[in-house]
Amino acid sequence: QRVFDRLAVFAGAFDLLGWNDAGTRGLFFASSDDNKSRYLQVVDPAGKLSTLEVLKDTAWVGGPCGVCGGWYGPGSSRVWYISEADGFSHLYTIAADGSGKQQLTKGRWEVRDVDLSPDKRWFYLQTSEVSPFEQHLYRMPTAGGAMEKITTKSGRHNAVVSPDGQLVADVYCT
Questions:
Q1: What is the pLDDT of residues 21-41, one digit of tens each?
Q2: Which of 17, 68, 146, 166 counts the highest number of beta carbons within 10 A?
Q3: Measured between alpha carbons, how far is 40 from 20 in angstroms, rounded to an integer?
């Protein structure tokens, strides 16, 4: 209750990203009413807020996957999220204490969607890396590294990987 009383004084919107595996920390984005500021925050059982990232822009913040994020790693010790910190929508990770920030994707293109595999070993990303007019599905180890392109035909793919990682449902247009 105390946590929500504190948050009520913030004018803007909240996007809840979920609890860590132990259920002891919550993760959320708080955005200003004018969409010019976004805060990635963790809240602990005592209601203490820790800010992991502040993103500000004179136009707006958000992007195509502006509220994508969640917990992963041993004991849910790390957070993954999408940020426009470099001017494009990309995948980042950071420890829950705010240390060890890593940018996993880079380039003059956008990450449009991200899913974490059920075994938490892979990120499945839909990006515009090929062209702003195309969207493809890739997978990348959660530790980072090369992205493996899964969809191959030209077009805008909207793909979902099955829970066991063996199948892909892919709807696309050329």
A1: 999 999 999 999 899 999 999
A2: 68
A3: 15
